[in-house]
Amino acid sequence: MKKTIFLLIGLSLVFILNNGYCEAQSFGLYGAVALPQGDFGDDSGSDAGLAKTGFGGGMEYCAPLGSPGLEWVLSGSLLLNKLDTDPLEDELGWWLDGGDVDAGSWMNIPLMGGIRYRTMASPTVDFFAVGLAGLNVVKGPTIKYEALFWDDWEYEYVHVEIEQTLDPATSFGMGIGAGIIVNKKLSIAFRYLNLGEPEIKGDIEADVEYEEYFDWDVEFDQPISMLLLTVGVTF
After folding, report:
1. Phi, psi of 69 (to 5 degrees)
2. Which residues of 85-122 are buried (b: 16+ CB within 10 A; e: fewer)?
3. To 5 degrees, how large is the angle CA 41–CA 44–CA 47?
4. Per CATH, the architecture of 2-234 is what?
5. Nearest Cα to 63, choosing from 31, 18, 7?
6. What is the reported pLDDT for 99?
C-alpha cells in the first residue's frame, strides 16, 4: 500500500513539474460536507456502515491537456464520518447495564486523477464537470463497549470491556462531479464518490475485570460511497 501511495505522489510531482510552464494551470483548496450513500450510511443490514454525515477537505491541481476546455486533474481528500452508535446501543441494550458504546469515525483518503471539462457560462462564472479514478485508503472506526454483567455465582457486577480496532485498507474508487467557479476564485461543487468495497481486517479484544479474556480476528467487506458538497478557492 505504501509503495502505491508513493508512486502516485511521484507521478503527480513529475506531471506538475513537466507542466509548470503552462499559464492556465491552477491549484485549489476546498472544504466538504460528506453525505454517506447506500450501504455506507445504512443503520441495518449485513453491509451497513453506520456512517453519519461528516466533513473533510482536500486539494486539487489542474493543468490543460491541449484541447479547449479539457484539463488533467489530480485530487486528494481527507474525509471523516462519525459512526452512529444508536443502532449498536439498541442491539446491545438487553445486556448493557450502566455501560455505553463509544466509537470513532470512518476515515477515507481518496487519491485520484482524471479529466475535467471547463467552459465559460458567463463573464464571471465558469462551469465544469469532472471524472476521476484512483486509490482510496480507509481506516475504520474503533468501537468500545463497556458493560456491567451480573455474576450469578459471585452475586456481584463484573466489569466487561470489548474493543474492536480495524487496520487500514485500500480499494479502487471512482468519482464524478460538477460545479461552478465564480470570478476565477470561488468554487462551489458536488461530487459523488464510489470508493469500492475494501476488505477490512481487525481485532476484537475483551477484558473482564481489566484482564484479557479473549482476542479474535475480524474481517469483512464494506461498501463505501458518499456525496460531497464542496466550497473552495482556486489559485
Report:
1. 85, -15
2. beebeeebeeebeebebebbbbbbbbbbbbebbbeeee
3. 70
4. Beta Barrel (2.40)
5. 18
6. 65
Block means of pLDDT (10 residues each) for the chain, length 235 residues? 48 45 77 98 94 98 93 97 89 63 96 97 97 98 86 79 96 98 97 98 91 89 98 95
Domain ranges of the chain: 2-234
Q: What is the Cα Rg of the chain in Å?
A: 22
Q: For position 7, what pLDDT does the model report?
A: 46
pLDDT at 152: 75
3-state SS string for the chain: CHHHHHHHHHHHHHHHHHCCCCCCCEEEEEEEEEEECHHHHCCCCCCCCCECCEEEEEEEEEEECCCCCEEEEEEEEEEEEEECCHHHHHHHCCCCCCCEEEECEEEEEEEEEEEEEEEECCCCEEEEEEEEEEEEEEECCCEEEEEEEEECCCCEEEEEEEEEEECCEEEEEEEEEEEEEECCCEEEEEEEEECCCCEEEEEEEEEECCEEEEEEEEEEECCCEEEEEEEEEEC
The model's pTM: 0.86
196, three cell numbers:
469500492
